[in-house]
Amino acid sequence: MPAERAYVPNMTAPPPHMTAEELLETNIPNKATELVRGRLIVREPPGSRHGAVAMNLAVRLANHVEPLGAGQIFAAETGFTLFREPDTVRAPDIAFVRRERLPHPVPAGYLELAPDLVRRSALARRPPGRGCWPKSATGSMRVRAWCG
Known about the structure:
Helix content is 18%, strand content 20%. It is α+β, with helices and mostly antiparallel strands and 148 residues long.
């Protein structure tokens, strides 16, 4: 008597990996998107309290950074390409990149670097493990500060 199959028959192949360039061209109305190891992550946009907290912090950081010419503060949902093949594009609530690390001119697409500072608010409703950038998400690119 033949043995039964131990797996689900007719399983479809996993979807192909998406690239950072494909993500940049993707528009899913009223959703926030990121790319993790080539897989599209789609989530609800954050609420108003989250937006107020993120904006207040961004204003305070910008008031310190801009007069010094220390670098650039990036607003919520600005994408940063952290890995290639498969691509990872993460979008913190607030990011800071030192002046000497900024490309000139700043590209219209994603920056291909890890910011020097990132902040992701715990107020946003994200699945467990997605509230901050885990150290493994940046590989050899070192983010110098983590959200708390």
